[in-house]
Design goal:
- The complex is a heterodimer.
- By secondary structure, chain A is mainly α.
- Chain A has helices at residues 3-24, 29-53, 79-102, 109-128, 132-150, 157-188, 193-201, 209-221, 230-233, 239-248, 253-260, 267-288, 294-316, 335-364, 377-380, 382-395, 402-417, 419-444, 451-454, 461-476, 488-491, 499-523, 531-535, 537-598, 604-622; strands spanning 57-66, 69-77, 320-323, 328-332.
- Chain A contains 25 helices and 4 strands.
- In chain A, the strands form 2 sheets. In chain A, strands 1-2 form a two-stranded antiparallel ribbon. A two-stranded antiparallel sheet of chain A has the order 3-4.
- Chain A starts with a helix and ends with a helix.
- By secondary structure, chain B is mainly alpha-helical.
- Chains A and B meet through helix 24 and helix 25 of A and helix 7, helix 9 and helix 12 of B.
């Protein structure tokens, strides 16, 4: 089968699955779950076959033409898309598989799996998109499917609020994205990715506004400050959804989009992006320390890691160095893309692993999410424990696991380019290993601290198999050699430290890990409550306040400013639009209608007069009477 | 008349040219024979046979669509066979079939003789098919009277119902009056065209081609002008154009629902078929017909929509909205009259077809929702239809949406094509009126949809006034589903059908 048909096949399989579920299987959750999982398996198989098949291609089809403005739908399948598609396919399949077990008793399975299929379709659309407009369409579609899935337990008020919040916050970012697309079209006359690259290559210059507006989209989707507030709340959705959408793929779409439009980046924009990423990374790491909900910890950790990737992207495009054969070439390479995508890849594996692991814990503990009511799970759930341990080790940068390589690449880049950022990212790394080890220790060690934890048990094969797959990927995913030649273009951009730099980075990385992990192990000896809260309440409260501050600010804005403005508009609308124009107009028409109705008196005599009147008028007209 | 002349006249009686009409007539007669021959309990076979027979004739018509008679006149100039005629033949046959299907559903509720109903419907349809090919005032009048007389019977068919009888009587008197006007107009034209004192006078002044030549030679004849407007007013009665629309609500309400559908679709289409022929015949007098039709169209659109706005009886509502549809179609006729554009003719025919699909879908639902008393069909009776009968409610929504001209349904394309034709003909004022009318119409169509889909508040223990709804049989289900589907598909994709209509 030619590659293009495989691509189309993988693209449309989830759409077909979603349509079949929506139209035929709404009340047959069991069948629906298998249909959706089969589609996900097809996507995974297609993605891997395409990636390792070696062929790269692009085609596009005109979709709409208005005058000389045309929009097209097309597929741009290069190494970057291949990598992203492979991640989406593999993680998507693991999550589908896991969901089969996790959602087995859910009453609305069909809605859930239909939503997953819609998501897969939209996500693949983003990956394939060969122009910004098409990307925007699917960008909105993933937002919609994310809304559906966060809202899965819609009878819960908090879930309904969370989905609304996610949707609205994303709209804010998407508005900027849309403006950016329009500005891009205005400035360059094209929104096609290849077209943009061509124009820039030919010497067109763009202002910093365009990449920054486009970055707004990434800020919403990848939950960067100050639009990060939706992601922690989005944990109201089912845990596999959190793993797929809010950790591995959709939130990474912002990074992917940035990498797609790398040519547009000007230094000023990159600086802004770098600082947004760095601040987000640090802020989220601080918030993660005081969380007591297992999923919230992971959510803030995701935020922090996304900040890492964004910072890497912002940093790297300035790097000027390349080692050639025997001599040094001076060469500008957008190594930020390589570092960001590399970390995106490894993060997708270990974060999905940990989310699914937390799902397994939650499932085992009968939907208990408070880590202080767990404990002792290392003996109750050995497989979950060992795989989760691998995940934790990977994220804190334990040497020679996946996260170690990608984090080192970013730290190296930061060290070379901006010392302040380097320091902040290193601090973030300390905090990361601190809160991850804290979580790991509290959940899995000690004695069970509740009924639920007492009776915890391992899930079935469909829940453990994805854990094993992802754990293996978290171990080996950092060795680019295992991917063969498939993503060579991307991997070539990974910054690699040599010589003394290598030693410094290795030392720093191991030091921050040991520092964070060690202090966590020391601090959390007594596991009944939060040791930090007991020993340093001021720090604990301060961090809690930090977390609340954004929500508070936004709530204040909505309640005091936006709501009042809306009420004013409503008043004007009620009086002027609804009152005078709509009702006034309708009233006049209605009166005429009643008049016309009254003409039908039902008496034959009257009707005959109508006829005669008509005949006379026409006669007079024909005879020239008018 | 001597023998040779008679022989020559008989020689042009190519009966093969009107084979579908003949077959339909024979089938109609055959039904009556069957009623006598078959035992009483087997009578339920007859309607099925009637429908099957008509479908067979329709299929035959399609197979023989490009008949060798196209473009020729037969029966001594009485008939002229055109592609438009072929289309309208199929159109009338199709509506006859649909009326028969509705008839089966509706008559089951009444204690009535059944077979005559199908018989009359088929005779009327055959007359309509002939009418669509008329090229001569004599044939036009005879065919028109056959139709009208058939309808007198059909309208008062449920003779146990006083409203039906009243409607029949009103239709009879109004129809007689309009036939009088029409006949008077024909006589004036015949007389003036046969006047030897005038140039280009003709002995064949009933023949449309000859009449057109005469009119072209006498551009400002008062008698001819009066004849023309009187003929137009006779036809305006058939299509229900203002000021000859006044009979419509009462008659539509009283007539049995299938007959109302027949009146609304086929009778109106027949009126437009003649109108299109006549407008071309009267083309030399376009400076007279165009303003008359323009004023009629504007008044019809406004009156129909405004009067429909306050109706609660759905049959009256459909009747008055049908008046508005006649107005939109008149807009197309004005475009034909003003510019003689083929596009406008195609647009009118497309509109008629879309109107047929949508109307029969709606009337089909109405026959199922109606109770024993056919005249009493209120908007309130549709409450909860969406919950209890989702199929009927969906068909209703699609039909009404198409009537309202909501994209992407067929009715929208019909309106769009007519509006494009009117725009090309430069009828901007009339176009404005039409768009205003469409806006109003959405209100009452959607009010109906709302009644069917959204539950209204009802006091606890208030009596349920809704009549029992009829179960939907397989045939009716298939028919309604295909009507609704066709309305959707034709909105998206006009395909060869649209090309054929537009590019002839």
């Amino acid at each position: 089968m030619p590659s293009t048909s495989i691509a189309l096949f993988a693209f449309l399989a989830p759409l077909v699955s979603a349509a079949v579920i929506a139209l035929l299987l709404r009340r047959r959750g069991g069948i629906a779950s298998y249909v959706s999982s089969a589609a996900a398996a097809l996507v995974a198989a297609g993605a891997l076959a395409l990636a390792f098949g070696g062929e790269r291609f692009a085609f596009s089809q005109e979709w709409l033409r208005l005058g000389d403005f045309s929009l097209s739908i097309g597929i741009k399948y290069d190494d970057l898309a291949a990598l992203m598609l492979a991640i989406v396919g593999v993680v998507g399949f693991c999550v589908h598989l896991f969901s089969l077990g996790y959602m087995a008793d859910d009453a609305a399975k069909a809605r859930y799996f239909g939503g997953l299929s819609v998501f897969m379709f939209s996500m693949i659309g983003i990956v394939f998109a060969d122009n910004l407009f098409m990307m925007f369409i699917f960008w909105e579609l993933v937002g919609f499917s994310s809304y559906l899935l966060i809202n899965h337990y819609h009878e819960k008020q908090s879930a309904a609020d969370a989905s609304k919040k996610a949707f609205i916050v994303n709209r804010v970012g998407d508005f900027g994205f849309l403006l950016g697309i329009i500005a891009c079209y205005y400035a360059l006359g094209t929104v096609s990715l290849d077209g943009i690259a061509e124009k820039i290559g030919a010497g067109s210059v763009v202002t910093a506004a365009i990449p920054l507006l486009l970055f707004c989209g990434a800020m919403g989707k990848s939950a960067q400050m100050p639009l990060h507030v939706w992601l922690p709340d989005a944990m109201e959705g089912p845990t596999p959804v959190s793993a797929l959408i809010h950790a591995a793929t959709m939130v990474a779409a912002g990074i992917y989009m940035l990498c797609r439009i790398q040519v547009l980046m000007v230094p000023e924009a990159l600086t802004v992006i770098m600082w947004v990423g760095t601040v987000t990374a640090l802020y989220a790491a601080l918030c993660a320390i005081v969380q007591s909900d297992i999923k919230k910890v992971l959510a803030y950790s995701t935020l922090s890691q996304l900040g890492y990737m964004v910072a890497a992207f912002g940093l790297g495009s300035m790097a000027v160095e390349h080692a050639g054969e025997g001599m040094m070439h001076a060469m500008v390479l957008p190594v930020g893309v390589g570092a960001a995508m590399f970390h995106l890849t490894t993060h997708a594996f270990f974060k999905a692993l940990m989310f699914l692991g937390s799902g397994s814990v939650i499932h085992g503990c009968h939907h208990e999410q408070n880590i202080f009511r767990m404990g002792g799970l290392n003996r109750k759930m050995p497989l979950t424990f060992s795989t989760f341990t691998i995940g934790v080790a990977a994220i804190i940068g334990f040497p020679y696991l996946a996260g170690f390589f990608s984090k080192d690449a970013i730290l190296f880049l930061a060290m070379k380019n901006n010392t302040a950022v380097f320091a902040l990212l290193a601090l973030t790394a300390v905090l990361t290993s601190f809160y991850m080890v804290r979580l790991w220790r509290i959940v899995f060690f000690g004695t069970p601290r509740s009924q639920e934890a007492e009776h915890a048990h391992e899930g079935g094969l469909s829940m453990t198999l994805p854990l094993v797959i992802l754990a293996i990927l978290s171990i080996v995913g950092g060795y680019t050699a295992i991917y063969g030649n498939a993503f060579a273009e991307v991997w070539a951009l990974i910054p690699v430290a040599h010589g003394s730099d290598h030693t410094i980075i290795l030392a720093v990385s191991v030091a921050v890990m040991v520092l964070g992990a060690g202090s966590a192990l020391l601090l959390y000896k007594r596991l009944g409550g939060d040791a930090l809260e007991a020993k340093a309440p001021a720090v604990f409260d301060g961090l809690g306040l930090l977390k609340e501050s954004f929500d508070g600010l936004y709530n204040y804005y909505v309640a005091k400013v936006q709501q009042r403005f809306a009420m004013l508009l409503n008043f004007v609308e009620q009086i002027f639009l609804a009152g005078v124009i709509v009702r006034g107009f309708a009233g006049v028409v209605g009166l005429v209608g009643i008049g016309a109705r009254a003409l039908h008196v039902g008496s034959l005599h009257a009707y005959v007069y109508w006829f005669l009147l008509g005949a006379v008028l026409l006669w007079a007209f024909a005879a020239g009477g008018f | 008349m001597n023998y040779e002349l008679l022989q020559a006249a008989a020689a042009s009686n190519t009966w093969g040219a009107i084979l579908p009409e003949l077959l339909l007539g024979c089938l109609a007669l055959g039904l009556l024979v069957l009623e006598i021959v078959l035992p009483k309990k087997r009578h339920d076979l007859i309607p099925a046979l009637a429908i099957a027979g008509q479908v067979a004739i329709l299929v035959g018509l399609f197979i023989n669509f490009r008949t060798g008679y196209l473009g020729e006149t037969t029966f001594n100039g009485l008939l002229k066979h055109t592609e438009s005629g072929q289309f309208l033949r199929a159109f009338f046959l199709l509506s006859s079939i649909l009326v028969s299907v509705l008839g089966v559903v509706a008559l089951a509720k009444q204690k009535m003789p059944r077979i005559e109903f199908f018989h009359i419907v088929m005779v009327v349809s055959a007359a309509m098919m002939l009418l669509a090919q008329a090229n001569h005032f004599v044939l036009l009048f005879v065919a028109l009277e056959t139709i009208t007389v058939g309808f007198y019977i059909l309208v008062s068919y449920t003779r146990s119902n006083p409203l039906s009888l009243e409607a029949g009587l009103k239709y009879l008197i109004m129809g007689a009056l309009s036939s009088g006007l029409l006949l008077f107009g024909i006589v004036l034209l015949y007389g003036v065209a046969g006047n030897p004192a005038l140039p280009a006078h003709t002995a064949e002044s009933m023949n449309f081609d000859a009449l057109r030549l005469f009119l072209a030679a006498n551009p400002d004849n008062v008698l001819a002008s009066i004849g023309i407007v009187l003929v137009l007013s006779g036809v305006a009665f058939k299509v229900g154009a203002v000021p000859f629309q006044i009979w419509i609500p009462d008659v539509y309400q009283g007539a049995p629902t299938p007959v109302t559908a027949f009146l609304a679709v086929a009778s109106k289409a027949a009126g437009f078929a003649i109108l299109l022929i006549l407008v071309r015949t009267f083309a030399p007098y376009a400076s007279l017909t165009t303003p008359v039709l323009t004023i009629m169209a504007a008044a019809t659109i406004l009156f129909g929509n405004l009067a429909a706005l306050t109706q609660h009886n759905v049959k009256r509502l459909l009747g008055l909205s049908g008046v508005a549809h006649a107005g939109y179609l008149l807009l197309g006729v004005v475009a034909v009259s003003a510019t003689n554009s083929a596009l406008a003719v195609g647009a009118i025919q497309f509109y008629l077809f879309a109107y047929l699909l949508a109307s029969f879908a709606v009337f089909g639902v109405m026959t199922h929702v109606a109770g024993m008393d056919d005249a009493d069909q209120d908007l309130d009776h549709y409450a909860d239809l969406g919950k209890t009968h989702p199929f009927l409610a969906t068909v209703l929504a699609i039909g009404l949406g198409s009537l309202a001209g909501i994209p992407p349904l067929a009715g929208f394309m019909g309106k769009l094509l007519i509006f494009i034709a009117a725009f090309k003909a430069g009828l901007y004022g009339l176009l404005g009126v039409a768009i205003f009318g469409v806006v109003i119409s959405i209100y009452y169509y959607f009010g109906w949809i709302k009644a069917a889909f959204f539950s209204t508040w009802k006091a606890e223990g208030a009596p349920d006034t809704r009549p029992a709804r009829t179960e939907v049989s397989i045939t009716a289900r298939l028919t309604l589903a295909s009507l609704a589907l066709a309305s959707i598909i034709l909105g998206f994709y006009q395909g060869p059908f649209g090309d054929w209509l537009m590019l002839r």
